[in-house]
Amino acid sequence: MDGTLTIWIFALILVVVGFIVYYRKSLDLLGSVFLIFMGVVILFKAGISWLILILIFLFLSLYSSRYAKEYKQKLGIYEKKRTTKNVVSNGLVAVIMAAFGGIVFNGHYITFVGGFIGAVATATADTVASEIGVLQRPRLLTTFRTVEPGTDGAVSALGTSAGILGAGIIGFTSFILGILPNPFFAVQITIIAGTIGCFMDSVFGAVLERRGLINNEHVNLLGTLSGAIVGIILIS
Questions:
Q1: Which of 95, 98, 206, 229 is deepest in the core (most CB within 10 A)?
Q2: Residue 208: domain span
Q3: Cβ atoms within 10 Å, residue 108
Q4: In sequence order, what are the beta bridge partners of 104?
Q5: Is 136 among the domain residues?
């Protein structure tokens, strides 16, 4: 099949995915539009494999969000519909990395594949850890005191383990898709970058968000940026 035709087919698939998540009320209308826009940027600037990796993150995010739905509703922390802020804060860094995924600067080819992988791994680890971790009573990262599930900056063994697994899935998938050449290296990169980024997310939440200095979207953005930086360092 012609490469250009394949890309347009995936663009159509992306639109269908955007419609489905809106129809299922997983994202609001503007959030779905931004999801499609960001996906198109990744698709046309970085390619199909990078887009599929983002869609894997989306699937893991939506699945973990609906996991133990009734229990989360009882706690009052179930987030049925996500918004544009959620899409941008979790995906902006990855999109920037994809948009500049292959540039030539001063005669040298520079790739931000490590940044992209690190950002996606962090977004996945953080989302999965947050959604699964509420099933276990967490501790605040800065004081290690037991707090209520859903508390900003709180971590749990269950959530951390789930986050590492999510990051590992992103790593292995990146190998399957041909983004990274070695499966062990790919998983190592995503687990390290995703875990560090996820913990930085918790640090920002415990230190800054709890004091009202930043909000949850800022925390997510800073977390994925941290993961991206670690990814770039590890692959350099």
A1: 98
A2: 48-235
A3: 7
A4: 109
A5: yes
CA distances from 192 to 85, 142, 173, 222 (A): 26, 21, 16, 16
- Asked, for residue 227, whether it belongs to a domain, the answer is yes
In a domain, 55, yes or no: yes
| Total domains present in the chain | 1
Chain centroid offset of residue 56 CA: 10
Specify the pTM. Answer: 0.93
77-104 burial: b if 16+ Cβ within 10 Å, else e: ebeeebbbbbbbbbbbbbbbbbbbbeee
In whole angstroms, give the CA distance from residue 196 to residue 185: 16
Each residue of 167-180: b (16+ CB within 10 Å) or e? bbbbbebbbebebb
Whole-number Å distance between alpha carbons of 192 and 184:
12
Residue 225 belongs to some domain of the structure: yes
154-155/108-111 β-pairing: unpaired
